């Protein structure tokens, strides 16, 4: 899988440190994939290398079945051994440049960051994405001070590579994280620790999609009346208004748009649109 294909991910799920009673790691992570997880990371800070390798082989097979990228935390050698899609590094781990030399040009390299300076440094050094967090205090990062949503907003304004908000994010606070500018969310306990990981994934994706739609909405004036719309083109606006089967003349910001050009004419925030409906008569 090519690195360029990974940029549109929205929900990133990481394995929990502990096994779940009555459920295997593979079973739990398969439930997340059924629910829509778009990247899976294996994170095991306490197990032996042999244990991590065994888990990686199982999850590599699972993620390949679902066509989802598979990332391994901390072990570039196991990435190569299992043909995983990439590695995730911490600030004290292998430098990004060295990881790139080991893994080659096609695998993804992500790195955890806790400040804008770290984020911009990772971007300069060639990271494919960064983790921004922990946004809230979390047991998965004991002793790590929360960066709060203020860092999320800084990242949204200044970082050009994909970033994923992580750390203590739940369905109870994810809307605040999204409002701060995040468009990619990572959750651990709130998903893999839930009784129904698939349902938890669907709920997170629903919140993310709602935030995307709200961000895409624009305010325009239609026949003198202010409207909110997610239409990207004149054709989409006409369709949303239910006018697609009528004989219309469309005027956009004072210029008439020929019907053949509606699909390719962008509708920008603040646009003024006049729709004139012609009715035949005798």
TrEMBL record:
One of its GO terms (cellular component) is cytoplasm. Its EC number is 2.5.1.3. GO terms for biological process: thiamine biosynthetic process; thiamine diphosphate biosynthetic process. 2-[(2R,5Z)-2-carboxy-4-methylthiazol-5(2H)-ylidene]ethyl phosphate binds at residues 138-140, 168, 188-189. It is an enzyme of class 2 (transferase). Its cofactor is Mg(2+). It comes from the Bacteria. GO terms for molecular function: magnesium ion binding; thiamine-phosphate diphosphorylase activity. Signal peptide: none annotated. Residues 11-191 form the Thiamine phosphate synthase/TenI domain. Mg(2+) binds at residues 74, 93. InterPro entries: Aldolase_TIM, Beta-grasp_dom_sf, Mopterin_synth/thiamin_S_b, Thi_S, ThiamineP_synth_sf, ThiamineP_synth_TenI, ThiS/MoaD-like, TMP_synthase. Pathway: Cofactor biosynthesis; thiamine diphosphate biosynthesis; thiamine phosphate from 4-amino-2-methyl-5-diphosphomethylpyrimidine and 4-methyl-5-(2-phosphoethyl)-thiazole: step 1/1. 4-amino-2-methyl-5-(diphosphooxymethyl)pyrimidine binds at residues 41-45, 73, 112, 141. It catalyses: 2-(2-carboxy-4-methylthiazol-5-yl)ethyl phosphate + 4-amino-2-methyl-5-(diphosphooxymethyl)pyrimidine + 2 H(+) = thiamine phosphate + CO2 + diphosphate; 4-methyl-5-(2-phosphooxyethyl)-thiazole + 4-amino-2-methyl-5-(diphosphooxymethyl)pyrimidine + H(+) = thiamine phosphate + diphosphate; 2-[(2R,5Z)-2-carboxy-4-methylthiazol-5(2H)-ylidene]ethyl phosphate + 4-amino-2-methyl-5-(diphosphooxymethyl)pyrimidine + 2 H(+) = thiamine phosphate + CO2 + diphosphate. Binds 1 Mg(2+) ion per subunit. Keywords: Magnesium, Metal-binding, Thiamine biosynthesis, Transferase. Belongs to the thiamine-phosphate synthase family. PANTHER family: THIAMINE-PHOSPHATE PYROPHOSPHORYLASE, THIAMINE-PHOSPHATE SYNTHASE. Condenses 4-methyl-5-(beta-hydroxyethyl)thiazole monophosphate (THZ-P) and 2-methyl-4-amino-5-hydroxymethyl pyrimidine pyrophosphate (HMP-PP) to form thiamine monophosphate (TMP). This is Thiamine-phosphate synthase. The lineage of its organism: Bacteria, Bacillati, Bacillota, Bacilli, Bacillales. The gene is thiE.
